[in-house]
Amino acid sequence: MSGPDVAWYLALAAVLFGIGALGVLIRRNTLVVLLSLELMLNAGNLALIALSRHFHNGAGQIFALAVMAVAASEVCVGLGLVVALNRRNLSLDVDTLSELRG
Amino acid sequence: MIAASAGNVVVWIVWVVAAFTCLGSAVAVVSFSNPFYSALALIGNLGSLAVLYLLLSAEFVAAAQVLVYAGAVVVMFLFVIAYVGPRRETPWSGGPGWQTIGAVAAAGALMVEIIVAIGMQASGSLSHETEVGTAFGTPAWIGRVFLVDHLLAFEITSVVLLIAAVGGVILGSHTKRATT
Amino acid sequence: MTGLTYGSWLCLLAPLAGTILILLGGSRIPRLAAAWIATTSVFVAFGGAVWAFFGVHSQHQGPELLPLTSQVTVPAHGEITTAWTWLQSGNFHVGLQLLVDPLSTVMMLIVSGVGGLIVLYSIGYMDGDEEERRYFAYIAFFVFSMLLLVEGGNLLMLLVGWGLVGLSSYLLIGFWHDRPSAVRAAKKAFVMNAFGDATMALAFFILIAHTNSLDFGVNFNAHLSGTATNFVALGLLGGAVAKSAQIPLQTWLPDAMEGPTPVSALIHAATMVTAGVYLIARTYPLFEHARTIQLIAAGAGALTLLVAGLIALVQTDIKRVIAYSTMSQIGYMFVGVGVGAYANGVFHLLTHAFFKALLFMTAGLVIHAVANEQDIRKLRGVGRLMPFTKWCFLVGALALVGIPPFSGFFSKDPIVASAAALGTWYGWIFWVCGVAGAFLTGLYTFRLWYLVFPGEPSPFVREHYHDHHGREGAWTMLVPVGILAVLATFAGWLQWTPRWDPFTRWLAPAAPSLAAAVPTDTQEYFTSVAVVIAGLAGLVLAWAIYSERRIAIPAAPFWRRLFEEKFYFDWLYDRIFYEPAVATAAFLRREFEEPVVLQTGPDVGNTTLATGSLVRRLQTGLLRTYVLFLAAGAAIVVLAFLIAR
Amino acid sequence: MSASGLTSILIWLPIAGAFGIWLLPLSRYATGSLALLLSLAEVGFWIEQATRFDFSRSGLQMSEQANWFGDLGVSYHVGVYGFSVWLVGLTVVVMAACIGYGFWVGRDRTRAYFGLMLLLTGATVGVFESQDLLLFYAFFEAMLIPLYVLIGVWGGARRMEATIKFVIYTMAGSLIMLAAIVSYGLKAGTFDLVDGPTSASRWLFLGFMLAFVIKAPLFPFHGWLPDAYREAPPEVAAVLSGVIAKAGLYGMLRIAITKFPDPTSFYRTTVLALAAAALVYGSLLAFRAPDFRGVVAYSSLAQSGLIALGLFAGTDLGFDGAVLQMVAHGLVSASLFLLAGVVERRTTTGEFRLLGGMARGRPALATLLMTVGVISLAVPGSSMFAGEFLILAGVFQRAWFWAVIGAAGILLAAMYMLRLISAVLHEARGSTVTDEALDLRPGELALIVPLVGVLLALSVWPAGISHHSFTPDSPTAAVRTGFK
Amino acid sequence: MSLNTPHIDWFGLSPVLTLIGASFFALLCAVLVPRALRRVASASISVVGFAAGIVLAVWLYVDSANGHTIAAGAFYRDRWTALGQIILCAVGLATTLLAVEHLPGWGRDADPGRRDDHVSEFFALLLASAAGMAFFVGAANLMVLFLSLEWFSIALYVMCAIDYDLEGSLEAGLKYLVVGSFGAATLLFGSALVYGATGKISFSGIATAIGSEGVTSDAFVVTGIALIVAGLGFKMSAAPFHMWTPDVYEGAPTTVTAWMSSATKVAALLLTFRLMTTAFPHNQHLWGWAFAIIATISLAIGNFAALVQRNVKRILAYSAIAQAGFMLIGLSTGSPLGARALMYYLIPYSAAAFGSFAIVAARERELGVPVTLDNLAGFGWERPFLGVAMWFFVFGFAGLPLGGGFVGKFYVFAAAYDHGWVWLVIVGVLATLVSLYYYLAIVRAMYMRPGAELQLHPDAGVAVTGGAPARESLLHVAVGAAFVVSFGSLFAVEPLIDLAQHAASTLPF
């Protein structure tokens, strides 16, 4: 069965990537920032899988699977940090985390 | 490809729906002021991506997507959000003015550039479509590829996960906290 | 190595040895020891000079007037000895050489002889000064330098001696270094002499550039263009006028009287200041090749002898009067060597050394006896108390004025005569100046005499006069004065050019007088008469004005002021040289060094730091900014690649 | 030991000594004496080297070569020529005197201090002996490091600005030189100074010259000089003006002129003009400087100008005179700075308006200062006179007016030196000159008298250096052939 | 069904495996060893692990004269990898020594009950990150690259935040995590695009694909390369991807900073050089220029920003950015000489970077407050050895002949000139000039300010004697080692260059 060719998927991935990036750039809530990072990684995944199909080789899919694991790990650490921050009663607003500057 | 043959109209419809869900949910993730909703929106996003993966005949990945992400990751998110309590925050606000402008500009630029690149390629290396066999994307096939071609990657992934787990434990451990 | 060589080296090194001995001895040796070390060393030098003299004499054949050669050859009647190569570069080399020939032996005799007497005199004069040792070290060092100057076997050695006498002169003028005036005078003397050294050096550079040598033996003129020779001569002349205090570089000499009187006698009368004359005589071929310059030298001399004479008329400091008379007498010598009568010039140098030293030392006796008072207006009648001094001074005065049979007469007149011998218009101008100078000499000399010595002692004198154990001074002071008085009287008889001229013949091999400058007997007689009359006229006038008060001092305020201001030379030089230099330095320091040179570095530094703090502002500490930079950077790179691919 | 061994020993003995001193926990006294001993050993080794050096032979002698990194043709290559021997001698003698001075005045933080002084000795000797561009550069930079700390730690009140200024200025020059070195060496395929070919590149020439004119320094690149010379401890200032400045001039001779004949002749007039400017400008400012060190500082600016005149005259006399003058002035300015230190120790100031009348009752001080002073104003017969005479005679052969300017400079020298002498020694006693201000102690005499002695010896036989720097062939020929 | 799994050259992976193994054991200590012994036990495990890693890496270096890929083309076994691993393990060893005496929250104000929290985990993470880097330098395809990158990054995120009682530490961790993940995502997307253009993920495959299909200027390739450059540029903290560096270096525990500043750069630069020359040789005209520009920006920003800092860790952080600029000069040439220059430069650099931060750590532990130029006063006199070492380190950074940095700079300049980039040499020279100011400032602070005027140091007594406090003997050993390397590399240039030359010989030029 045929469908929209790979360019469309890639375009979609690009847009997704852009939205994710925007999210990281404009959101101040740490959790949402982490979510947006997930979006970006997923954009990468989508591209990989589309291309994997396009070239008909498995590298892309494997890559994608690996990325999922990695993403999970990042989230794990990230959320760990969030918890730690919260425990020290620090705001999760990244803009308030500017003790280090200059 | 607007003049698509009747055979894949269905595919097209599915694709369009999935694509729009995907984008919509992504926008939602970024723009909800309440992280809780954002997390929920992410589930939708992941789901729609899974559908797209199916269209790309990557069943195993699609399954993994649903299980690992929607299943594990987002749930983890939800727990943490519940733990730290709802912290509302309005997007597009705070920080220096040029920050927001720059953000839109940079993200937009990246997106546009990549799309332009894709556009350039659409007629080029991407045009010729390869027909794929039925085995493509099945768990068995994946497993073979994994264990034969990319064994190392497989191993690494496990190490990464382990490290992350350790890190999570260290950072999240409640025990014996300093009196603050 | 012959006797004369040994003699010359002995003569040169004895005083140096004396200096070093005194320096090393330092405060460990008693004062008198230092004094006697110096004296002995100088007299040893005199012995060496005599030795050398006889060495040269033994080779000296009869009197031949060499034909005018346009080159200095190593004289037949002397020899050059080289100790070692002092300075060498490529194929230019200068040895540490001594030249002994008739001319240098004469100078050696004068320097060491008169020098010896004066050092002896100093023993008494400086007695009781707390830094006596330093004084004697200096003065011995001066004698060494002066001997190096006159014995130097090549131009560079001559220059070395030249500079060293300048140095020792500086040291001795500034000997009483807690007197600001003395220090200032010393610096002035040194700097003006340094100027002379510089011009000489430049002249030598020309010689090196053309002939790559500074030996007397070289035939410079063969390699030099006319212009070059003129410049060389000019440079040498610059040195000469500076050292001999001739116009336009004369202003340092009067101030130099700040030094102890024996110093004035030795350096600023007998020896150093006459070095210019020696220089011209020594390098006469160059000067004769640049005749214009040589005549300029004569002109400078003529001018100086008048100007100095005029200024001397209004001086009130006994030493300064004599100092100006020195300038004027050296002016005569310059006229002599300038017109080409080297023998006459040097002969006058000889006699002048005697009677001028005598004058200074008698003046020294007076000053020493009267509480270091130098103002002639207070010293009236001191002669009554110091007869010996009085008569010795009179001898000196007569010799100075040139009254026969005193030595001045025999040496001064031939110079004026040789000026006449030129027969040209400028020759006659020199002649007139000479005669006029004689008149002035008579006038100011006897003004001094009548103001100071005869008559009733002034109350000031009575009050301050104190004798030295019943004598007018220590024997060490009186003996040299006596000797010099004798010399001042009879030395002139050595030659009377119209009749006998052994001195000229003696010098002929080294510095043969220019044929054009050899006067006829008529010129000689005529000139002598004129000069003597002029001198007597001055003498009488002085008697009339200052002794008998027959004639009032002509009240010519402008002239008086002009003379007292020394023709405004000092004033002029301050305006032209010193003050501009100071102003420029101050200006550069204020307007360039501090704001520009020193400030540029810090300014750049601060700008950099400012940039730094700008960059630092980027580091907002906002996480999102960092991500933004990453994203933007990526976007830009992508864009650049897409464009540049 | 082998003759060539001497060359390396002269470099590494003090450096090793420095590390030794840092590592060994010696007492103050032991440290000082050890350092002094080492510096004297240096002098001894140098004498050995000078006696073994065959002045009648041309070309590099006592050379040693070891691979450093071959792929770029950089090697540890040291050796000496006639003129290097003299400059090395200057270095070791002056350093010995200065270390002695530091010992005498009892600098605190003894181990650090003497270690750095020794390090400085080694580095400076290295500059004069190294025959590889990168090695030269390394030592050239290495000189800075101890100097920085020496001035910064033991210096005067405004030492901070002084050090920063000094280091940044000189580094600005030498880094440009590094760029030039890289490009020269890669183009030539070797960094060896002996084998290296000559180059016609004006940019490279300028790159090298910049470093040297700042180090020397020449007008108007002397912005660092007054502060550094005023704020540094006297013995360090002595080293600065006596030795370090000479490294810049040595560089001009060994590298800029030798390796870049065409650019040299192209820029000759420019450099001569700068040099002449330095001479006159420095003399003028020295003439108005308000303090002892100021006079000496600006006078060394003037002297650098004079020496540069000689070097860039490009004549036999110029080269010989320049080398002679480098040594003579090195000794003179070192002695003067030490004397300045001696005076400052007694009166706590170098300001002329507070000084004066020190001659009375202090014969040794007076005699020494007077002697050094008159030598430094180049009274005829002195070694300085010999040097200046040769230099000016040499530059006169290039063009007469340089010599005239030079002569004017000499005249000014007389003026400022006499001013200094009388301001310190003569006239009324200064307000800070008390009776406690004693005459020189034996220790100080033992430091300064040798320097003066060497100066007098040079005055007796200047040809000893002037004719033993480029022999046997004439300097110009030697330079043209790159000292082959 | 039968899987013919590929033959794995275990020996080729041995250093990595050793480190992972050690990491596991260290982790086990956390649960098996009694609290009192944990520090010692896990530290010794770490020491053993790194030592073994060094030995094996050396062995590998000797044994892999002709480099090749192993494990189905996933990993390079060659001297470039081996040499990189040697450096990494050495730094790791030193870091261990430094870390043994590290106390969370700088000990003083942390409550003593917690001083041994997570000590084993810390070493486990250290080893794990080291393993990740050791793997990273040998990565042979984009996937392994990405994964190993994340591997050591995640470990580093945690290590940065491990002093979670200090807000700064947490902040550093979070900033590093977010920026890092963003960079990773960029890198990932870039890889995807390259994959899209060539259908290959192995470096050599990509190169051949680009070469054969003549898609050099293919939009995907260039965009991909661009994104990869950005992603890696972040890791080597090159401007403008550097912004995280100062904050993270300052906030992270100094021990960790020391480790990051030296090891991460080694890994990132070596990998980047290999990636660019192996996978994208045809696009050198792009990435060469890109890195040249990035180098310039890094030099400018790093140096200028460092001028106005007071906090020593920040100064060193900015100096690290500038140093990255210097090394990028070598990288941007992509020539054999450039490879040598880079490889050589890394050796003294990593030593000096580690050493300088270690010394800052020493001062921190002494004072219990962040080290600024002001409270560094008198340090040089109180702790002569550390002072002199610091002196040598910073002057080495500045390119003065007190360390290999001198020769390193010379080499990168030579490489740039050789490549025809005189302007880059000039830039480097000017940058060095600017950098002098703050490097000198450090020495000035240590030696030229009287330490007496601030009554901070509790144990000034030990200072004068020259002997250092015994409790920090290990730190002194570490610094001493760094000192020896950084100073020795000035003299032992020839052998090191030979090593680098052989290492670079397996790269395709």
Folded structure, characterized:
The complex is a heteropentamer of chains A (102), B (180), C (645), D (484) and E (509). With 102 residues, chain A is mainly α. Chain A has helices spanning 6-26, 30-55, 59-87. In chain A, helix 1 packs antiparallel against helix 2 and helix 2 packs antiparallel against helix 3 (59-87). Chain B has 6 helices and no strands. With 180 residues, chain B is mainly α. Mean pLDDT of chain B is 82; it is low at 176-180. Helices cover 71% and strands 0% of the residues of chain B. Chain E has helices spanning 10-32, 35-63, 79-100, 119-138, 142-160, 167-198, 203-213, 219-235, 244-251, 254-279, 284-307, 312-333, 336-367, 379-382, 384-397, 404-418, 422-448, 460-465, 473-491, 493-505, and strands spanning 68-70, 75-77. In chain E, 75% of the residues lie in helices and 1% in strands. Chain E is globular and about 65 Å long. Chains in contact: A-B, A-C, A-E, B-C, B-E, C-D, C-E, D-E. Chains A and B meet through helix 1, helix 2 and helix 3 of A and helix 1, helix 2, helix 3, helix 4 and helix 5 of B.
Features:
heteropentamer, B: 180 residues, mainly alpha, 6 helices, globular, disordered C terminus, E: 509 residues, two-stranded antiparallel ribbon, 2 strands
Quick structural gist:
The complex is a heteropentamer of chains A (102), B (180), C (645), D (484) and E (509). Chain A has 102 residues and is an all-alpha fold.
Write the element-wise H/E pattern of chain C from the N-terminal end onward.
HHEEHHHHHHHHHHHHHHHHHHHHHHHH
Structural class of chain A: mainly alpha
Characterize the quaternary organization of these chains.
heteropentamer
What structural class do you assign from the helix and strand content of chain C? mainly alpha
Please estimate the helix content of chain C. over 70%
Q: Helical residue percent of chain A? A: over 70%
- Portion in strands of chain C: under 5%
User: Looking across the biggest beta sheet of chain C, what order are the strands in?
Assistant: 1-2
Helix count, DSSP H or I runs of 4 or more residues of chain A? 3
Number of E-type strands of chain C:
2
Secondary-structure element order of chain A, N to C:
HHH
Low-confidence stretches of chain A: none
Topology, please?
The complex is a heteropentamer of chains A (102), B (180), C (645), D (484) and E (509).
Chain A: H1 6-26, H2 30-55, H3 59-87
Helix pairs in contact in A: 1-2, 2-3
Chain C: H1 3-25, H2 31-59, E1 79-89, E2 92-100, H3 102-125, H4 132-151, H5 155-173, H6 180-211, H7 220-223, H8 226-243, H9 252-255, H10 261-270, H11 275-282, H12 284-289, H13 291-314, H14 318-339, H15 342-369, H16 382-385, H17 387-401, H18 407-422, H19 425-452, H20 459-464, H21 475-490, H22 502-507, H23 521-547, H24 557-564, H25 569-618, H26 623-644
Antiparallel strand pairs in C: 1-2
Helix pairs in contact in C: 1-2, 1-4, 2-3, 2-4, 3-4, 3-10, 3-15, 3-21, 4-5, 5-6, 6-8, 8-11, 8-13, 10-15, 11-14, 11-15, 13-14, 13-19, 13-24, 14-15, 14-18, 14-19, 15-17, 15-18, 15-21, 17-19, 17-21, 18-19, 18-23, 19-23
Chain E: H1 10-32, H2 35-63, E1 68-70, E2 75-77, H3 79-100, H4 119-138, H5 142-160, H6 167-198, H7 203-213, H8 219-235, H9 244-251, H10 254-279, H11 284-307, H12 312-333, H13 336-367, H14 379-382, H15 384-397, H16 404-418, H17 422-448, H18 460-465, H19 473-491, H20 493-505
Antiparallel strand pairs in E: 1-2
